[in-house]
Design a protein that fits this description.
mainly alpha; two-stranded antiparallel ribbon; about 70% helix; globular
Amino acid sequence: MSQFLNLLVAGLTSGAIYGIFGACLAVWFRVCNVLNLAVGDFAMFGAIGTAWLVQNAGLPFIAGIVVDLAGVGLAAWLFDWVVLHQAFDRGRGARGIVGVFFYTFGLSLVLEGVARAWFGTDVWGAPAIWPGPALSVLDFHVQRAGILVIAVAIVSGLALWAYLRFTVSGRAASACGESTFGARIIGTAVLAGLFGIVESPLSGFTYLSGPTISLIGTIAAGFASFRRPGRAVAIGLAIGVVESMLGGYVSSSYNDVLLYALLFGIIIFRPEVLGLGAEPA
């Protein structure tokens, strides 16, 4: 029983990471038809920037979080105004999925370059928001940071779902996806940065951490049709648990292979399970 509980918590922790970045991508795509491949880099800057401000600049932890997230939001706003506003709203650049891909991929490369020049190649981790040893009950152990990661993912997913579904401004933001006008990436960029801060005590971040995070977020968002942030979190949690159980009970060497084979099988044979059925004519 203790092995099952430990695997369950480990799976929920990794699944929360999948899910929250999937939710960020789903919101971006839903409100403006932008698949932002730089979501992981915003998380990277949240984690590394806060660690640098606290350890090197000497700021208090809370002040470091505020300053860092303000910087993440400013970077997102500048990208929205300088690139997306000019390309979409004024029609001065390439449009469509290919154009958006290169815009956000280019942003990812720029952020990685800035991070390497500023922070170097070291592994960074922000201070733990909830410090202390792992919580233990008999043979069941869970890291405090892991509890926070799961909690932030669930709360954020529910909040985004409720905002987009039940509020006037949320419905208006969704409607913006038809014309790509309106607020695009600032709020979810800050959310990604905050989640990077919460997660970093578990795994640490380098300037190259962003693309991996973006990839796992894309998987969760894809299974939520890139439009349902609440479902992205739920699917991310489920994927993390299945991955953990396969590693614990089947094979730790091939759990990723088995997981993605299972996902591909669902896409091919039972897409309706995940809301991925054929598009209406």
